[in-house]
Design a protein that fits this description.
- Seven copies of one chain form a homoheptamer.
- By secondary structure, chain A is an all-beta fold.
- Chain A has one domain: GroES chaperonin (10 Kd Chaperonin, Protein Cpn10, Chain O), CATH 2.30.33.
- Helix content of chain A is 0%, strand content 51%.
- Chain A is globular.
- At the A-B interface, β11 of A face β1 and β9 of B.
- β1 of chain A pairs antiparallel with β11 of chain E.
- Chains A, B, C, D, E, F, G: Heptamer of 7 subunits arranged in a ring. Interacts with the chaperonin GroEL.
- Chains A, B, C, D, E, F, G: GO terms for molecular function: ATP binding; metal ion binding; protein folding chaperone; protein-folding chaperone binding; unfolded protein binding.
- Chains A, B, C, D, E, F, G: Belongs to the GroES chaperonin family.
Chain lengths: 94, 94, 94, 94, 94, 94, 94
């Protein structure tokens, strides 16, 4: 199991379908938008300078939108995940 | 439903009418001004280093002006929205 | 009505008279100085990291000097205003 | 009257005499040093993140040295002043 | 013994196997991913501006993932270690 | 008298002897090291964000080493001094 | 005696032996690693924004590793020392 540290969140990124016209793969315009994915694990939260711990605003299983280009790709047991900072998660898709 | 996180606010951007003269589309001079829109959803607010949570200064339905080029465009259920940080909202239009 | 947010202040900028000599418009040397204007509306003030709210140092009707190039131009009901951060207001002209 | 805001201080800058040799004006070497002037008015002081207000370290009438190139030049009722941040005042000349 | 200071952590970096095809060494694609290793020693933690000490989120023996290019390589008694800041450790591999 | 403000310290810089060989002045290699001098006056100290005032770590008459290139040169009553921030003083020479 | 100020630490840098092969001096590969040395004196520690003083994490006589290129070289009574900030000391060698 991967246990993210601090305010980090592990996300399984949703795959975007590529549209093809006559066999030519077209980059979806949606690719310039933020990506979406499913939260797999959350860290214990971030610590303020006052010492207070702020838990993550998302939880396991949440569908989320996050800033494109945020985070670090990791490979674990054959699967690929993205580990992003909680501040790079824009919204929960409910 | 899209639920913005932190001090983020989801805005439906007001469309600007383009003036055309004899079929030629003229870029409105107003386009260099801040944009306006309607607040669709607000996050729970930002957290100060002291741990205090500051709620958003705007609420659903507010007409707002926001800094041009601020925020991230998102597409959700066929509609386009802008998710901006509360600090990029300049004024409420009452 | 436009209601500025945070420590923002709406200013109606004073027009500078341009001197002309024999029909040639001369850029006033004063133009390189800070601009002056009248405060039209003030936001609720800025919030310190301690949570304390600091009200604006200016009020409606004040004549103020502000840093040139500060702020964002907005157009509202046919009039042009400047919305500046309170920290860019240099002095009150009494 | 000009009332400076925050930790700003209004200074009437002391004029430096230029030495001339045979009619040629020589830039004084002292010009590369900090400038001096007289404090005309002081703001209410700066506000710490803790909310505490720190009054200016100088008062009206003080002769002060300040960092060259600091501040903003203003013209008021025909006179020229410099408005500088309190942190750019180096020393009081007693 | 090496005793790391502050929020630093000493890591013995896991060696990555290189795949070779017909004798040609291929850089593993995994090399662009974060590195993994074993925690050898942890410092006393970081000190917040409030004076509170936050202990490290990892302990001796933990298998961790950390940001590639983070930290400082050290050689000690013939062995090579990496000393990284706690904030550069992404996740614990359990 | 010159009274430095905040955490500033006025220093009379020690002159370095230049070695000359056969009339040719050699730049001393020591010139690339920090400079030394005597503390002439100290300000009231710096103010923390908590409002607490931290007095200077040096006092009048102290021999000090300070970062080369730090501070502002001032001329006062025919003498030249350096006014440096307390944080640029490296050590007291006892 | 040299008394370092704030969180500074005076270090006597350990000399690295250079390997020579047939008279040609080879730069040791270890030179790209952090340097080691002996702590000669420590300052009173750093002051947090809360006013709390944090003493140095090292003491006189400690063998330490520190970031290469950190600190300021000083010469005192014929000896050369390095004065580094406490935050640039990576580890104590016990």
């Amino acid at each position: 199991m991967l246990k993210p540290l601090g305010d980090r969140v592990i996300i399984e990124v949703a795959k975007e379908e590529e549209k093809s016209v006559g066999g030519i793969v077209l980059a979806s315009s949606a690719k310039e938008k933020p990506q979406t994915g499913t939260v797999i694990a959350v860290g214990e939260g971030r610590v303020l300078e006052s010492g207070q711990k702020i838990p993550a605003a998302v939880k396991e299983g949440d569908q989320v939108m996050f800033e494109k280009y945020a985070g670090t790709e990791v490979k674990y047991e054959g699967n690929e995940y993205l580990i992003v900072s909680g501040k790079d998660i824009i919204a929960i898709v409910e």
